Amino acid sequence: MASIDAQLRLLAPKKVSDDDKLVEYDALLLDCFLDILQDLHGEDIRQTVQDCYELSAEYEGKHKPEKLEELGNMLTGLDAGDSIVIAKSFSHMLSLANLAEEVQIAYRRRY
């Protein structure tokens, strides 16, 4: 079953702003990436990446030093192999965010 958000978009497609579409594309790509990451590396790595992502977002939004410290502690507590997987995961997530933005730009040019 489609999400409530998707159902509402079907009812009123013209009410969806371009920025909403970018957020939707980015979230969809992130969800797919995290599912693949879990399939390849397990639930623990997925959860760690997700926790790091959420802490990063909290720090970016509120600039609370304790969030940055918590993120730093989480990252420094990882073993070398997990650190590499998590660093590469963030690199891939940034690439996916850029891809979502490029899709939005192409969509704006087309319509």
Automatic annotation (TrEMBL):
GO biological process, alphabetically ordered: carbon fixation; leaf development; tricarboxylic acid cycle
Short name of one Pfam family: PEPcase
One of the record's GO cellular component terms: cytosol
UniProt-listed InterPro entries: PEP_COase, Pyrv/PenolPyrv_kinase-like_dom
Domain of life, per lineage: Eukaryota
Record's signal peptide: none
Any one Gene Ontology molecular-function term assigned to this protein's record: phosphoenolpyruvate carboxylase activity
The name this protein goes by in its record: Phosphoenolpyruvate carboxylase
